[in-house]
Design goal:
It is built from four helices and 15 strands. By secondary structure, the protein is α+β, with helices and mostly antiparallel strands. The strands form four sheets. Strands 4-5-6-7-9-8 form a six-stranded mixed β-barrel. The termini are far apart. About 25% of the residues are buried. The C terminus is likely disordered. This is BAH domain-containing protein. Keywords: Flowering, Metal-binding, Nucleus, Transcription, Transcription regulation, Zinc, Zinc-finger. InterPro entries: BAH_dom, BAH_sf, Znf_FYVE_PHD, Znf_PHD, Znf_PHD-finger, Znf_RING/FYVE/PHD. Belongs to the SHL1/EBS protein family.
Length: about 250
């Protein structure tokens, strides 16, 4: 058997592969696919990664270069109230793993596409943030907040939509004094602030200004800050656009 002058085996040449077939499932993985990978601790859920590259050496040992997704509880700041159960963060952590550790395929949706799913399957996840593993920083580092509790949107939570709201638009039932069961039976909903504005308008008073104090949630791993970005009116338009294009209205009928 050939050896180098230092007594070491020569480095085996590698070749790029177009795909890899998962053992036992027959599913085909290609670069760009998201996969579930077997953890070293059998008590943990599978790791989620995006396959960047597939390659094989002359002994047919197949390796995959992956970019890891982190679950909220794996991040420096941990899981928070607004994190969805299927939420992932796309990290800047890359690795080389044996293809044999791939257990299956999954789909990591954009936040917008995830909120439009009629049925969320076991293979469905979503991502709305990139995550810097070394520093705990998020991109973007702030998002719009909703409800009186001023929290980012969690697609797992039922929310009711005010039909005349100039401020928060979406509310958690508990934050407006109702149960989830009561919220599901609603045909219409107007928050207390809008009801107050209607009464004032009927009495000849002007309603609240369209320049509402729209806030955002800023991410750091140790603390949060609410801040108004730009002019209040610009922020209002931004929130309206966000609700129309990013957040799927909750069906409470």
């Amino acid at each position: 058997m050939a050896k180098t002058r230092h007594g070491l085996m020569p480095k085996l040449p590698k070749r790029n592969l177009d795909s890899y077939t998962i053992r036992g499932t027959g599913k085909v993985v290609r670069a760009g696919d998201c996969v579930l990978m077997r953890p070293s601790d059998t008590g943990k859920p599978p790791y989620v990664a995006c396959v960047e590259k597939i390659e094989s050496d002359s002994r047919n040992n197949v390796k995959v270069r992956v970019r890891w997704y982190y679950r909220p509880e794996e991040s420096i700041g941990g899981r928070r109230q607004f994190h969805g159960s299927k939420e992932l963060f796309l990290s800047d952590h890359y690795d080389i793993q044996s293809a044999n550790t791939i257990e299956g395929k999954c789909i990591v949706h954009s936040f917008k596409d995830y909120t439009k799913l009629e049925n969320v399957g076991a293979e469905d996840y979503f991502c709305r943030f990139e995550y810097k593993a070394a520093t705990g920083a998020f991109i973007p580092d702030r998002v719009a907040v909703y409800c009186k509790c001023e929290m980012p949107y969690n697609p797992d939570d039922l929310m009711v939509q005010c039909e005349g709201c100039k401020d928060w638009y979406l509310y958690h039932p508990a934050c407006v004094g109702m149960t989830i069961e009561e919220a599901k039976l609603l045909d219409h909903f107007v928050c207390s602030e809008c009801s107050h504005d209607v009464k004032h308008a009927e009495n000849g008073f002007s309603s609240s200004s369209p320049e509402a104090d729209i806030k955002s949630y800023r991410f750091t791993w140790g603390w949060s800050q609410h801040r108004l970005d730009g002019s209040p009116y610009a922020a209002l338009l931004q929130l309206r656009n966000l609700l129309q294009n990013l957040v799927c209205p909750v069906d409470v009928t």
